[in-house]
């Protein structure tokens, strides 16, 4: 019998929404409010790590992000793909099983209404895929690398996005 290997099944691990405000203040607060409205989850404020990043001192807030996992991630991703008409460039896929795209204005997301307090803001959407057994690279004890044959290739992640979410590839404009 020639059955498909269940360890080769690709799954959606997480969807991360990222929005850079550039500085602390009203724009950061608006960004935080917008992500909370879209996801209904608590937002994490991102801070600078290096001594001086684009003229901003270390430890200063510059953006917000939220990570969604499991079933909620699948539903949210379907909504977010609707904002870009299910079209993604092939260059948006990497060789580790991840892909990302940008949304220019949050009002493009189906079901999200314009809020005059927030204004118009865009965001980055990053999708991480996994296979069973990927826990070995994240676990606390005895971390290890994923074998080359078990990694997710660019073609596999493109096929997963096409089959699971109906993604269409567009031409790269370079």
Features:
five-stranded antiparallel sheet; alpha+beta; 174 residues; 23% helix
Can you walk me through this structure?
The chain has 174 residues and is an alpha+beta fold. The protein has one domain (9-166): 50s Ribosomal Protein L5, Chain: A (2-Layer Sandwich). The protein has helices at residues 26-39, 70-83, 154-165, and strands at 11-20, 44-47, 52-53, 56-57, 61-69, 87-88, 98-103, 123-130, 168-169. A five-stranded antiparallel beta sheet has the order 2-5-1-8-7, with helices on one face. A two-stranded antiparallel ribbon has the order 3-4. Strands 6-9 form a two-stranded parallel sheet. The radius of gyration is 18 Å and the shape is globular. The termini are far apart.
Mean pLDDT: 89
* Sheet of most strands: 5 strands, antiparallel
Question: Roughly how many Å is the radius of gyration?
Answer: 18 Å
* Beta-strand content: 25-35%
Number of helices: 3
Q: Which class of secondary structure composition applies to the elements? A: alpha+beta
Shape: globular
Query: What is the CATH superfamily classification?
Result: Ribosomal protein L5
Spatial strand sequence of the major β-sheet: 2-5-1-8-7
Which residues sit in consecutive blocks of at least 5 with pLDDT less than 50? none
Total count of strands: 9
Distance between the termini: 47 Å
Can you write the helix and strand succession as a string?
EHEEEEHEEEHE
Our count of domains comes out at 1
What fold name goes in the CATH topology slot? 50s Ribosomal Protein L5, Chain: A
Q: Note the quaternary state here.
A: single chain
- Architecture (CATH level 2) name: 2-Layer Sandwich
Percent helix among the residues?
10-25%
Which CATH C-level class is it?
Alpha Beta
């Amino acid at each position: 019998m020639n059955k498909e290997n269940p360890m080769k099944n690709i799954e959606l691990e997480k969807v991360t929404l990222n929005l850079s405000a550039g500085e602390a203040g009203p724009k950061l607060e608006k960004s935080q409010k917008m992500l909370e409205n879209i996801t209904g989850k608590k937002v994490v404020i991102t801070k600078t790590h290096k001594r001086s990043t684009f003229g901003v001192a270390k430890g200063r807030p510059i953006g917000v992000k939220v990570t969604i996992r499991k079933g909620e991630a699948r539903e949210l991703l379907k909504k977010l793909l609707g904002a870009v008409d299910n079209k993604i460039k092939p260059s948006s896929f990497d060789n580790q099983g991840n892909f990302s795209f940008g949304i220019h204005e949050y009002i493009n997301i189906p079901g999200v209404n314009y809020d005059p307090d927030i204004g118009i803001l865009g965001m980055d959407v990053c999708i991480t895929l996994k296979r069973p057994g990927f826990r070995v690279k994240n676990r606390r004890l005895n971390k290890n690398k994923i074998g080359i044959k078990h990694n997710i290739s660019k073609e596999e992640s493109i096929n997963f996005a096409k089959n699971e979410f109906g993604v269409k590839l567009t031409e790269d404009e370079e």
